[in-house]
Amino acid sequence: MNIITMMKLESGMCRWPIGNPEDKDFHFCGEPREPSLPYCETHMRKARAPTRKPKDS
């Protein structure tokens, strides 16, 4: 697994954050991203996933 830190993040790489920014192992996905979008196909699906409605008690 190649860890993509902020310093290694380049144009064309997925910017999906992984982990807590305060942790030492925080990094980004780094897979090729969709043209004109910030994330790869997998993370664009997650970003656009519908939210669940809270269950009524």
Q: How much helix, percentage-wise, in residues?
A: 10-25%
What fraction of residues sit in β-strands? 5-15%
Count of the domains? 1
Question: DSSP helix count?
Answer: 1
Structural class: little secondary structure
> Could you tell me the number of beta strands?
2
Largest sheet: 2 strands, antiparallel
Average pLDDT confidence is: 89
C-alpha-based Rg, rounded: 14 Å
Low-confidence stretches: none
Q: What is the strand arrangement across the widest sheet?
A: 1-2
Straight-line distance between termini = 43 Å
Taken in chain order, the helices and strands follow as EEH
What is the overall silhouette? Answer: flat
Task: Provide a descriptive summary of the structure in words.
The chain has 57 residues and is largely without helices or strands. The protein has one domain. Helices cover 12% and strands 7% of the residues. The chain has 1 helix and 2 strands. The protein has a two-stranded antiparallel sheet. Strand 1 and strand 2 form a beta hairpin. The protein is flat. The chain starts with 16 loop residues before the first strand and ends in a 10-residue tail after the last helix. The relative contact order is 0.21. The model has no long low-confidence stretch (mean pLDDT 89).
